[in-house]
Amino acid sequence: MPVHASQESQVNQGRGVGLGLALASALAFGGSGVAAKPLIEAGLDPLHVVWLRAAGAALVMLPVAWRHRSLVRRRPALLAGFGLLGVAGVQACYFAAISRIPVGVALLVEYLAPALLLAWVRFVQRRPVTRAAALGVVLAVAGLACVVEVWSGLGFDAIGLLLALGAACCQVGYFVLSDQGSDAGDEAPDPLGVIAYGLLVGAALLTVVARPWGMDWSVLAGTAHMDGSPVAAALLLGWLVLVATVVAYVTGVLSVRRLSPQVAGVVACLEAVVATLLAWVMLGEHLSAPQLFGGAVVLVGALIAQSSAPAKSSAEPVAGALPGTEGASAEQGRPGERGEPGERDVPSGGDVPTGLPARGGGA
Predict the structure, then answer these.
(1) Which of 2, 13, 177, 347 could cross-link with 81 by S-S, CB 3.0 to 4.6 Å?
(2) What average pLDDT does the structure give for the chain?
(3) Which long-range contacts link 60-66 to residues 24+ away (Cβ below 8 Å)?
């Protein structure tokens, strides 16, 4: 009995640590848009901000990449796909979106990723979808209609909404990629290594697209404004690189080693809430009552869609969460092994970390 009590105590302690790490990851990712938007408004192009974020984080993670250099030979396609979709694609679309629409709205649109993912699973992969997952999709779409206020003829910039939807589509591609090799067991690539090389690949791709040599570097030596209050641009960039990227990814990876995909997914939903509240308080981006209600419905729908994972004994894979989460154990996973969108996850087999809203979101 004492042995069982000790084991149970260790399990509870591990879950507590995992919950704290997942919470820290959601908070860190949720603050990315709030730090990036003032830099964009100060004169930096959204693509330049994305490049600074990815390149800075890649430099920080360079020692990790060197340690896992065998991944370049073993999983080149995985690293390239993660860099293209999980880093460059999601962040570029998300940051471009928040330059035109409120941070909270952009992130909530990005939360359509679970709905788009289930459509991919149902109609492209032709796998059955649970009723709970379908209900989650309906709720997410209905909530989004409230967020963008369709009854008023789309109160936000249409291009901004399309860019946010593009970020959601990149999340879908990332989630599909996350399923690759999820059953590799001990042969699965280390998620920290995938993060490091994903950032390196993403930074390289963004260098070609963003052309940072044409950036106005003097902006970083000046100040930006958050709802009228001056803040050092270098301080915002440091937060964006170290906290909203490196810390967010690493805590996310470590959290899913101690939590189940479902629990991690519930905590991840706080990212959108955190982003919206921070944008409200620090940027003065107030949302109306219908938009707040719609945002809550989007989160509930995303939560239902990602938490309806089938039992491990299912004879046929059922899509109720992210690919690769069927029967995943608490020892398998990724920072977003939550089965939900976000700029920062690792598949249930420890294959890929997601997340950057974002992820964007995640960013």
Answers:
(1) 177
(2) 74
(3) 60/241, 60/242, 60/246, 61/195, 61/196, 61/199, 61/200, 61/246, 62/196, 62/200, 64/192, 64/193, 64/195, 64/196, 65/193, 65/196, 65/197, 65/200
The CA-based angle 34-39-44, given to 5 degrees, is 140
> In which domain, by residue range, is 297 found?
9-308
pLDDT tens digits, 155-177: 678 898 899 999 988 877 766 66
Which among 319, 299, 361 has a CA at the least distance from the CA of 336?
Answer: 361
pLDDT tens digits, one per residue of 115-132: 777 777 778 878 777 787
Within a domain: 325 = no
**Mean pLDDT, residues 135-153 taken together:** 73
Q: Quick check: is 265 in a domain?
A: yes
**Which has the closest alpha carbon to 90: 173, 201, 195, 197?**
173
Does the residue 331 lie in any domain? no
